[in-house]
């Protein structure tokens, strides 16, 4: 299920089957939470068995039944953007839960904070929780009645957008997803404004739950828009479309990246970049078994061992001090890993990494086991399929090779025109190294 499909499918569920969420779901959520907490400064916690927090609120708004698990959305009181961040990162968890067939509901009021077994240290607070758990496909009568009472019709796209000129397609096309964002009391308070060629998002009052609503709506927009970008935090703040929106800046910026072999001390950020990009965009190519094998391969300890034993050369592309792309190369000529941080894709970094691989190869030719979602981009870089798609240990890949005649690292290709879903963030592992043979 794509993000957009999850946005369309999601609906608040208040009657659960009463089971705590399973081990596999919990492991995925814990990994996401660790990443989000590090990125945002939040202290989100997964409470797998916390039914007591819902036992005293049966007669109020919500009327939840059989809640066992929830995300406790904890953060620092002093964080000016706490609620907005909670909305943004919490909705990522909601959409992942939806993809995994679980029901969810944001809950800002109708639960007992004191009975919630999460850690809320001094200076932290718990503005809301998000219930998560198995639900029945068929709605119970009580849940249906409640839903009708609580749920108000969503707004139409034209009701949430204003501005001084007609907004471009990448804004208008994402509006339905913003309209589908859940909001406290079903108020749908978020509006977007296109002014002076810039997009901003706001709520009438940046207090209480409206700022959570704002964070949720911002995430829906970012996921639905064809224009990659980043929201600044705050009421009325802008959607920064970065280099992709301004090709001339992108061209200038490309000249400022540097490529060098990674030091052992840099393997941790490299592993993190690959893990994040993998989780964001490539994981759908893998079975759970394949995802686990691949994660083990790119774990820091595994990278460290392979680099020390000279089984793998790891190169990084840096913008300033920031690592934005990683290449894993196996002698004599194999591209083993190729990841570009999401917001730096379409800027020629993949092309530079392939060019680096070509310099490392003996005769300028390269081979790769391309993940299905990366095949299009490798074609653009001059690689051609060598046989049929294969699958090993849950990893699907197409063997491809680039038989360079002129020594040029695919300069004939137009990387910026490659669709986002064809960018090669990952390829299956090389087969001839001792490290992988018979394993992946
Ligand atoms: C910040 C926030 C707080 C919410 N608090 C509650 C709550 O306390 N109790 C409840 O039953 N639903 C709560 N909801 C769920 C909303 O009522 C629900 O999202 C809204 O009615 C839209 O319905 P939908 O989620 O099915 O699209 C909350 C939603 C948000 C975003």
Characteristic key phrases:
single chain; 440 residues; alpha+beta; NADH Oxidase; 3 domains; 9-stranded mixed β-sheet; 33% helix; disordered C terminus; binds flavin mononucleotide
Outline the secondary-structure elements.
Layout: H1 3-9, H2 23-40, E1 45-47, E2 69-76, H3 82-99, E3 103-107, E4 124-133, H4 141-150, H5 157-160, E5 161-163, H6 169-172, H7 175-179, E6 191-195, E7 198-202, H8 208-224, E8 230-231, E9 237-240, H9 247-254, E10 257-261, H10 267-282, H11 288-298, H12 300-308, E11 313-319, E12 322-330, E13 334-340, H13 349-360, E14 366-370, H14 375-380, E15 384-385, E16 390-392, E17 395-402, E18 427-428
Parallel strand pairs: 5-6, 13-14
Antiparallel strand pairs: 1-2, 2-4, 3-4, 6-7, 7-9, 8-9, 10-11, 11-12, 12-13, 14-17, 14-18, 15-17, 16-17
Helix pairs in contact: 1-3, 2-3, 3-8
Bound molecules: flavin mononucleotide.
Summarize the structure in words.
This protein is α+β, with helices and mostly antiparallel strands and 440 residues long. The protein has three domains: 3-150, NADH Oxidase; 157-240, 3-Layer(aba) Sandwich (NADH Oxidase); 250-428, 3-Layer(aba) Sandwich (Aminopeptidase), CATH 3.40.630. It is built from 14 helices and 18 strands. It has helices at residues 3-9, 23-40, 82-99, 141-150, 157-160, 169-172, 175-179, 208-224, 247-254, 267-282, 288-298, 300-308, 349-360, 375-380; strands at 45-47, 69-76, 103-107, 124-133, 161-163, 191-195, 198-202, 230-231, 237-240, 257-261, 313-319, 322-330, 334-340, 366-370, 384-385, 390-392, 395-402, 427-428. The strands form three sheets. Strands 10, 11, 12, 13, 14, 15, 16, 17 and 18 form a nine-stranded mixed beta sheet that branches. It has a five-stranded mixed beta sheet with strand order 5-6-7-9-8. A four-stranded antiparallel beta sheet has the order 1-2-4-3. The chain starts with a helix and ends in a 12-residue tail after the last strand. Residues 243-254 and 406-440 have low confidence and may be disordered. Flavin mononucleotide is lined by residues 11-12, 14, 61-62, 105-110, 128, 150-151, 182-186, 209, 212-213, 216.
């Amino acid at each position: 299920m794509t993000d957009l499909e999850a946005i369309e499918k999601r609906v608040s569920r208040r009657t659960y089957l009463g089971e705590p969420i399973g081990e596999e779901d919990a492991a995925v959520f814990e990994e996401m939470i660790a990443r989000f907490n590090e990125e945002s400064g939040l202290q989100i916690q997964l409470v797998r068995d916390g039914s007591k927090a819902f036992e005293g609120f049966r007669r109020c708004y919500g009327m939840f039944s059989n809640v066992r698990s929830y995300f406790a959305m904890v953060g620092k009181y002093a964080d000016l953007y706490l609620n907005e961040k909670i909305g943004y990162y919490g909705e990522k968890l909601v959409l992942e839960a939806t993809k995994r067939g679980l029901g969810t509901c944001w809950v800002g009021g109708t639960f007992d904070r004191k009975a919630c077994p999460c850690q809320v240290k001094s200076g932290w607070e718990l503005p809301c929780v998000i219930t998560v758990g198995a639900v029945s496909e068929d709605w119970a009568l009580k849940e249906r009645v409640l839903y009708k009472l609580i749920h108000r019709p969503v707004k139409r796209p034209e009701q949430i957008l204003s501005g001084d000129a007609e907004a471009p397609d990448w804004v208008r096309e994402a509006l339905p997803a913003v309209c589908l964002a859940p909001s406290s009391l079903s108020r749908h308070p978020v509006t977007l404004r296109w002014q002076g060629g810039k997009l901003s998002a706001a709520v009438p009052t940046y207090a209480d739950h409206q700022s959570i609503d704002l964070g949720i709506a911002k995430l829906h927009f970012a996921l639905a828009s064809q224009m990659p970008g980043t929201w600044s935090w705050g009421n009325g703040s802008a959607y920064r479309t970065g280099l992709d929106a301004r090709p001339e800046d992108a061209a200038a910026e490309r000249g400022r990246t540097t490529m060098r072999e990674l030091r052992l001390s840099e393997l941790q950020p490299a592993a993190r970049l690959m893990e994040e990009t993998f989780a964001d965009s490539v994981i759908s190519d893998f079975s759970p078994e394949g995802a686990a094998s691949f994660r083990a391969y790119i774990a820091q300890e595994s990278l460290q061992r392979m680099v020390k034993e000279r089984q793998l050369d790891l190169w990084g592309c840096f913008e300033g001090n920031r690592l934005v792309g990683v290449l894993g190369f196996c002698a004599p000529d194999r591209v083993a890993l190729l990841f570009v941080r999401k917001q730096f894709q379409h800027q020629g970094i993949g092309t530079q990494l392939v060019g680096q691989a070509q310099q490392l190869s003996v005769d300028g030719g390269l081979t790769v086991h391309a993940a299905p979602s990366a095949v299009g981009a490798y074609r653009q870089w001059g690689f051609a399929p060598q046989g049929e798609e294969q699958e090993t240990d849950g990893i699907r890949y197409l063997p491809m090779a680039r038989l360079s005649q002129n020594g040029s690292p695919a300069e004939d290709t137009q990387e910026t025109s490659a669709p986002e879903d064809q960018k090669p963030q990952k390829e299956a592992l090389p087969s001839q190294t001792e490290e992988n043979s018979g394993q992946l």
